């Protein structure tokens, strides 16, 4: 045997599986098809700018992040707790009044925060805030939009803020995601301020990979997995590797190449990254567009941020970095550069003529779909010696990916040591 376990894929789930198995005393080989670890969490460094592949943030309130990640070493740079809302009259900030007292008066007097809307929001989220997250999974589930309607959350807070913000988080504007799943995400946003590691989001998987005794074997795609007497054989371009078990931790669209399981449905988005000589807006808040009559975005951009205001390490001195996100489930999700620039000029109220496109990421498989009812503990053992992990087996999030990898490793450890 070359190892006790071969892990195929060095995304978060695969790396956490390998770390847990190593900690439990097992010999592990990690194979990664790409030139770097991270899976869907990668950072391109372009002319001194850090451009994550897809607009991503790290939420320090995730229990798995608190337990298994050295947050201090990542040097997290936090977003403001709230959002800036663009409408026909300008941009106004809604922020946590205690964390951002400068915005307290404007937030508390905003026409978007009506008593009826706030009461509906409380009915929707407070039960999840007050009990363990596992309890919220036991309740009846429904679509996100139906859950908002049921509690009377139907006014401008929903149309201008919640629907747009959550569509960007989920890469899904349909409103058909599991309400219980979204409650778990919102609970984490309520308990922590998301941010960006100073070296980019890829610093998260790189930190995890650095703790492995044997380096990840990069640029080594697995071509086939075959179970046999006493274990498994994994074919690679340089030969076959044998182990007692294998954990398949590849991106969702590759699952069918190595297993008999179908690829899960996914949602996608695109992210445009621009450099600019001046910041179009000061402050650490995500900007949401609510300019369409009746609420919601009036153009292709659903959210944007001056990332260098939040994370100065993402841009060289004297320059600024702006991201803009579009959703692939919308007709204008693949809008061209001219349309995106025009929309950003409208949102920020400045010219983008001096802005330079650094990179445009089109990510069709950003997140697995999570329809109701919420199933966050899908079966991982799919053969005698084959396990399948990823956020598609738990919840579509960094939390879900980490938990999935750890859960499989603990289950496999019980078999290997029996």
Q: Domains counted in the coordinates: how many?
A: 2
User: Based on DSSP secondary structure assignment, what is the total number of beta strands?
Assistant: 17
Spatial sequence of strands, sheet with the most strands: 7-6-13-14-15-12-16
What class would the helix/strand composition place it in? alpha+beta
State the end-to-end CA separation: 18 Å
Shape: globular
Gyration radius from CA atoms, angstroms: 22 Å
- What's the level 1 CATH class of the largest domain? Alpha Beta
Note poorly predicted spans.
none
CATH architecture of the largest domain: Alpha-Beta Complex
**Helix coverage percent:** 25-40%
Mean pLDDT: 95
Q: Main sheet, how many strands, which sense, barrel?
A: 7 strands, mixed
Could you say what the CATH topology of the largest domain is called?
Answer: Polyamine Oxidase, Chain A, domain 2
What portion of the residues fall into strands of 2 or more residues? 15-25%
What is the number of helices?
14
């Amino acid at each position: 045997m070359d190892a006790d376990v071969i892990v195929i894929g060095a995304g978060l789930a695969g790396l956490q599986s390998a770390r847990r198995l190593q900690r439990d005393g097992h010999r592990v080989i990690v194979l990664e098809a790409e030139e770097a670890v991270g899976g869907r969490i990668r950072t391109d460094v372009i002319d001194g700018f850090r451009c994550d592949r897809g607009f991503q943030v790290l939420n320090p309130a995730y229990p798995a992040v608190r337990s298994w990640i050295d947050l201090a070493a990542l040097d997290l740079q936090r977003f403001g707790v709230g959002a800036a809302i663009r409408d026909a009259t300008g941009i106004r900030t809604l922020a946590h009044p205690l964390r951002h007292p400068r915005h307290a008066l404007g937030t508390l007097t905003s026409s978007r925060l009506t008593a009826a809307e706030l009461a509906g929001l409380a009915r929707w989220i407070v039960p999840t805030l007050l009990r363990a997250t596992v309890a919220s999974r036991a309740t009846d589930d429904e679509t996100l939009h139906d859950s908002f309607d049921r509690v009377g959350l139907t006014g401008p807070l929903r149309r201008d803020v919640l629907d747009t913000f959550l569509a960007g988080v989920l890469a899904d504007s349909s409103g058909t995601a599991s309400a219980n799943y979204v409650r778990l995400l919102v609970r984490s946003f309520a308990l922590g301020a998301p941010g960006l590691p100073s070296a980019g989001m890829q610093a998260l998987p790189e930190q995890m990979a650095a703790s492995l005794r044997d380096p990840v074997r990069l640029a080594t795609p697995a071509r086939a997995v075959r179970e046999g007497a006493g274990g498994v054989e994994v074919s690679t371009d340089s030969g076959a590797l044998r182990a007692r078990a294998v954990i398949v931790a590849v991106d969702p669209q590759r699952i069918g190449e190595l297993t008999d399981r179908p690829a899960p449905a996914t949602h996608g988005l695109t992210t445009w990254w621009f450099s600019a000589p001046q910041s179009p807006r000061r402050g650490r808040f995500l900007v949401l567009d609510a300019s369409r009559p009746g609420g919601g975005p009036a153009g292709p951009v659903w959210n944007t941020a001056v990332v260098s205001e939040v994370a100065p390490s993402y841009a060289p001195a004297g320059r600024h970095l702006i991201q803009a996100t579009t959703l692939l489930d919308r007709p204008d999700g693949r809008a061209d550069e001219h349309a995106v620039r025009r929309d950003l000029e409208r949102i920020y109220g400045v010219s983008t003529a001096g802005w330079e496109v650094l990179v445009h990421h089109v990510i069709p498989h950003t997140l697995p779909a999570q329809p109701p009812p919420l199933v966050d503990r899908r079966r991982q053992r799919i053969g005698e010696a084959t396990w399948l992990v990823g956020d598609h087996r738990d919840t579509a999030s960094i939390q879900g990916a980490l938990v999935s990898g750890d859960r499989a490793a603990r289950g496999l450890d019980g078999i290997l040591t029996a």
